[in-house]
UniProtKB/TrEMBL annotation:
<feature type="transmembrane region" description="Helical">
    <location>
        <begin position="140"/>
        <end position="160"/>
    </location>
</feature>
<keyword id="KW-1003">Cell membrane</keyword>
<feature type="transmembrane region" description="Helical">
    <location>
        <begin position="172"/>
        <end position="193"/>
    </location>
</feature>
<keyword id="KW-0472">Membrane</keyword>
<dbReference type="Pfam" id="PF09335">
    <property type="entry name" value="VTT_dom"/>
</dbReference>
<dbReference type="GO" id="GO:0005886">
    <property type="term" value="C:plasma membrane"/>
</dbReference>
<keyword id="KW-0812">Transmembrane</keyword>
<feature type="domain" description="VTT">
    <location>
        <begin position="30"/>
        <end position="160"/>
    </location>
</feature>
<feature type="transmembrane region" description="Helical">
    <location>
        <begin position="12"/>
        <end position="30"/>
    </location>
</feature>
<keyword id="KW-1133">Transmembrane helix</keyword>
<feature type="transmembrane region" description="Helical">
    <location>
        <begin position="50"/>
        <end position="71"/>
    </location>
</feature>
<dbReference type="InterPro" id="IPR051311">
    <property type="entry name" value="DedA_domain"/>
</dbReference>
<protein>
    <submittedName>
        <fullName>DedA family protein</fullName>
    </submittedName>
</protein>
<dbReference type="InterPro" id="IPR032816">
    <property type="entry name" value="VTT_dom"/>
</dbReference>
Amino acid sequence: MADWVQGLMDSMGYLGILLLMILENLFPPIPSELIMPSAGFAAARGDMNLAVVILMGVLGSVIGTLPLYYIGRAFGEERLVAWADKYGKWLTLSGKDIRKADDWFDRHGTKAVLFGRMVPGIRSLLSLPAGMSEMPMPKFLIYSAIGSALWATALATAGYVLGENYDRVEQYISPISKIVLVAVVVAAVAWFLKRRREQQTGA
């Protein structure tokens, strides 16, 4: 993966960073914690400008959020509620649960997008609920850009400072990504079991 990322940036330059960061949002196995430090290292070598590296990283990250946002927007809350009422019982999920989740995102969505863009493992997935809850596009783009800028700056700067050891950034962050994903799965399973017990008790 590292050789492929480096090769693409060597051949395409700044456009390679842009493309990689777009793909990173659509295919999470391509990690930004490898892309941006590698680009930062290229800036440290004098092959690129650090400010432009960060700018390309932010642009790619923001552009990459749009497909999932529009998918969420097209699917919409009402369709999801109707689907949950019809088929959700197999997942102990109801239309009421969907509306509660949507209400939560309406209240806390800006903070979720802002800080979620800096959390490995869920940063790209937040675009779906943002679209489903019909978060206004300007607000979504602004908070996505701020969060992405903070994340891209931190990663690129780390690569710039670490130099040839830039790959240590991914080594440190990769376990965090796994912990976050495990925590999300555990929380989902716990919620599922709790709902199932409530339904059985109610029955």
